[in-house]
Queue: 2 jobs
Job 1
Amino acid sequence: MNTSGSGFAGARRVLALTANTLTDLTRQRVFYFGLIFAVVLIASSVFMSRFSFQQEFQILKDVSLGAMSIVTSLLAVVATARLIPQDVEDRTVYTILSKPVPRFEYLLGKLFGILLLLALCMVLMNALFFAILYLREQTVLSETMQQMASAPREQLDAALRGVRESALNIDLLPAIATIYFKACLLAALTLFVSTFATTNLFTIVVMVFVYFIGHLQATARDYWLHSQGGGWIAQTFLAIVALLFPDLQAFNLIDDAVAGTAIPLALFGKTALLGLFYTTVYTALGSVVFYGKEL
Amino acid sequence: MTEPAITVHALTKVFPVPFRRRSIVAVRDLTLTVEPGEVYGLLGPNGSGKSTTLKIILGLVSPTKGRTEIFGRDSRTVRSRAAVGFLPENPYFYKYLTGEETLRFFGKLCGLGGLALQRRTNEMLAIVKLETARDRRLGTYSKGMLQRIGLAQALIHDPRVVVLDEPTAGVDPAGSREICELILRLKERGITVMLSSHLLAQAQEICDRVGILADGVLVREGRLEDLIAIENRTELVLENASETLLKEIESVVLKSKARLITQRKSTTTLEHLFLDATSRAQTGSGPAASSPEDGQKP
């Protein structure tokens, strides 16, 4: 089916669909997923006050980024899985696609709506995470100043610098960004699966398998290629698996960020490009399937 | 010669049945045209292929064979849909949107924006008489109101053709009457209407031409008066005729070769009786007998 109108008109239609999808998702109260994150974060911060400040900050960052990754991945799958089947079931897809709206734009509007929702969730979760980290940092700084009131100036400064470096630092940002890239990829893949799925449940079950295979495939690949020698059959098979199931472990930069290791720009760039590549490929595949779908 | 509003040429649609070695033929070699400005009714029982035909015309389903066009443009192209508005059977819109938000959303999809969109939204809400419910969420709308907002969204971009799939299904007689009147107003404005229905009395009232589908095959088609007229019979409706006059007419008929088949009091329809009674109950006035004219012009 041909596209209609200029690129500007197309962008306006996609924008209208994006805004509507975002409204739909927010009114479905999917933000409640964020509550899981808040509970985990607050519970862990209370529990960890008994550790040393280095341990406390490290565990807080580890737990928070881990929870952020799980919550966004869950949200990406569960919220996206219902978008198209719901529209088909309610026949709203008929009224939309009987207007001069190309199917590709419809799909893009749905995807952008969910990506915007994920971005909003990330902003809210990070605001909470940074606020708690900042408050704990201020408390530890104040306690350190009290405890080292009589210590020499240089010693106190070094101690305070140590506290600051182990709390908030810029190395967290690439890890947070890759969590978002992973969620975008999962949303695009879920949208693709939902173009040929008949129920939400089918899409979610498929995505649960994809999630686990995606996280395990790097380990399996290393085992096959290095321990078993890796003939051409194994290599071809693994290449197909890598295309069908994204290497989700590649999007895990949390460990480095928590350990305080600076993430190289090249690695971050490569991960971002990998996320963009998979998101684009799955959106294109979804468009091809949805183009031929009988509504 | 003017270009047809809708052309359906040698259309066949076969749905394969998954995991079984058989398929269902929903539409078989269907050919029809709808001329600009006319109201065309596609009639038939459930499962006769009406909705499938409409979906193919709108590009929602692809034909197995044949083609459909809207003002000469292939239905499969998105451009063809700039000229058409569609109301699906039992439409469910986004319940979280208000009436006004719904029209604005569909207007934006049709390329409207700014003041033009606001003006058109207001105009549509007035046409379907939903101005007072514009800020209510669709989740609180009645079936009839949903059908009317559905009609408004179908008309938001001022289409030249409107396709309505069972527009009065599930709507009470008063709501159904309003929708019929809206369709007739569209016709007055020169908009082509193609509708599917199995409510034959309504189709008879509003359609210029009809096509009857059975098992995906067009079994009858033509102008309504030609299809339902009984060639060798004539009706004579009299007002204030005395008994003497009636007897004279009867004797004249007896002397001729013609045969008087029936002679009876004119009646109204049950629908008009219902509408008259319910509207009187709402306005608080007492019951009144319907006149034959009520039956013809409600």
Job 2
Amino acid sequence: MTEPDVLRFTAVGSVDDGKSTLIGRLLYDCDGVYDDQLESVRKVSPAGLDLAFITDGLQAEREQGITIDVAYRYFGTSKRRFIIADTPGHEQYTRNMATGASTADLALILIDARKGVLPQTKRHACISWLLGIRRFAVVINKMDLVEYRRQEFDLIRQDFCGFAQRLSGCELEFFPVSALAGDNVVRRSERMPWFDGDALLSYLENVPIDGSPRMAAFRFPVQHVIRSDPDFRAYAGQIASGRVRPGDEVMVLPSRLVTRIRSIGAFRADLDHAFSPMSVALRLEGHVDLGRGDMLADPEQPPFLARRLRVTVVWMAETPLRLNQPYLVKHAGQRVCAEVCRLVSRLDVETLQEHDAATLCLNEIGDVELESHRPLIADPYCQNRTTGSLILIDPASNQTVGAGMIASAEEPAAPPLPAGGGRGLTVWFTGLSSSGKSTLSRAVYERLWAMGYKVELLDGDALRQHLCRDLGFSKQDRDENIRRIGFVAELLTRNGVIAVAAAISPYREIRDEIRQRIGNFVEVYANAPLAVCEERDTKGLYKKARAGQIPGFTGISDPYEPPLRPEVECNTDRESLAESVEKVMRIVQSRLSA
Amino acid sequence: MLLYSIGKDSSVLLRLAQKAFHPAKPPFPLLHVDTTYKFKEMPEFRDRTCAELGVRLIVHTSRGAREDGVNPFRLGSWKCCAILKTQALLDAMREGSFDAAIGGARRDEEKSRAKERVFSFRDANGQWDPRHQRPELWNLFNGRIEKGESVRVFPLSNWTELDVWRYIEAEQIPVVPLYFAKKREMLVRGNLLIPMEHDVPRLPGEQPETVMCRMRTLGCTYCTGAIRSTASSVSEIIDELPGLRRSERENRLIDHDQEGSMESKKREGYF
């Protein structure tokens, strides 16, 4: 099926500029309103047919006479289909305006011919521009009320052009219109012979739709891993930008491994190429292991991988932005914890000037430095709207509190090198299955990362699928498994990296052997009673072991030898995660500064 | 869970779900809230489709309500719909502990739906609050909820009736034959064509007429009128649509019980 040509635009203006009437007029004159809908509008209009009521749908609005939220409207002509986001003009609903603009190709800005460019007009133009819109149709409405004079139109055009110089890269078109009378909306008006441009609709029908991300660098955020049988593994998602063919080299992020596309799966058959915005299932060559939130990208023009980002944020909640407090960030396919560590400036959205500020309140916009617990795989918003945008969610209320446009990756401050000429450290977590090793080690790892250390996580379960996939669970194989993890940890430690390893590692002798080899070694005993671990049974292994399906299972049918003198012991059944992390961090920090 | 109403929009939605997970099956079941006042072709079509595709189907009927004699002829369409559809859907959500319901509603169908989010939050009582919706930017959806709360997800939000039919044509998706015109026995009341099913009460002296017609939407027989049409194939429907002067849901009696009635039903938990 050929993709129908769709123009998405947002309509913005101040209260009473006549936006709803203009949209009603577009729909009405393009036969986009059914007869029964018109009858229903006539029934509730105070005087005859009020076109504004077509879009102001909700009951509450009929009482207030104003639009309260983003309303989407659909109409089409023989040339093109249109999706309009009708967004409200009054100040407290700026967030809805940003919402409408986020998916729009063009902004239609309304100005009342009697009032001219208002502070709110500038505000709306700036927000549209910040959200990436570069094409503006400036509609000077209510020309009937100034007797269709050219003078008013020219003055307003001049005024707006002067202001818009600050919005770089913009294209502007001006239209003198009366939405109420229908002049220059769908048909050119004879009442303004001095205007030599097109009617608004023919402009909308013919304006090029930019930003077709097909030509941009390839980006594919993984949404879902499809495993229909043990040998089949495909990564499903929507191509955010660019195009792809089987055999193309792609970079896997965050690992930065480069592999090739094996095939492009679709519903009926495999494809020989695919491009944005298609949704496909990609299969890769070789053994690569991706999950939701990872990304495939063009290796020649990779996205950046960063935890510290400069972001322009539109604040959308009643509660002001809190610095150094946890928020959830949703970005491409992933959700991560993050904090705003610095408010760089607040933007005056009428002048685009930057001011110092302590916080951001509802409907305010500012530049912040955001630090996420895991790196984001991202591009600047001006280059890619999909991989450059994010939302902030309050983890307590679950509300969407902010919308962010990524400006750039901020280089983290130079990592504090461990004392002693960059000597590394191994932090080794041992304990029963489900004792909390993975959770605890990941938290410690993230903390060290956030502090700027070079740190690597070696998770026993993950390594068994790669480095140690040939090994079983005999005493001999278990020792070999631990030796290999120990060997990698040793290499890392020798090169100034902090290796955080988590493995059941049930036997004391082999753990002590590793300790001897590495030297700078911290043993953390994740200690929870067997009954507790069995109750948790995070991987369902205890149940299988009890049923006799897993022979030699540690704690059930094979011994666990607890450490005699671990540097740290975490009683994960009695302590909170935060308490355990603190205990580990105290020892780790004393070792690093020793 | 995917709310499957057997209609054309559900059929498109089901195809999208199949494609999203192909070659695996969609990892969620289909839920059909059966009022038992559906056209008899509908359950047949439903069972055949689900068997062919190998997807799990849950059929939920509000039995208590049925025994109490809830029917549109006695209670009127508004109350009947509240019990057989709205309440039944909320019950089914609770029974299945579903935290998300994917539905085929579109913003162009009805004016209050024009303001619905793609991810639409429902509180623990299944209620919608149009004044406090989560802002929705780009394609970044916030699906965070607490236990007991839920989201309704509307992937077809930006599709129009014409888009749906064009997609059905392009993908060759089977739909219930009631959508295609043929000669049917109907009660003709003004503009309304009421199907002769489920012992619909007749007005004094009223006789059914044979009318060339088709269903534009499918709901319960009493509340779904037909339109006069000769479009007997998907491509004929696509040709017919741009010329239609009446809206899609006009002959759905329930939408017009009172002005703004769809919004009231949505606040209470209707889809």
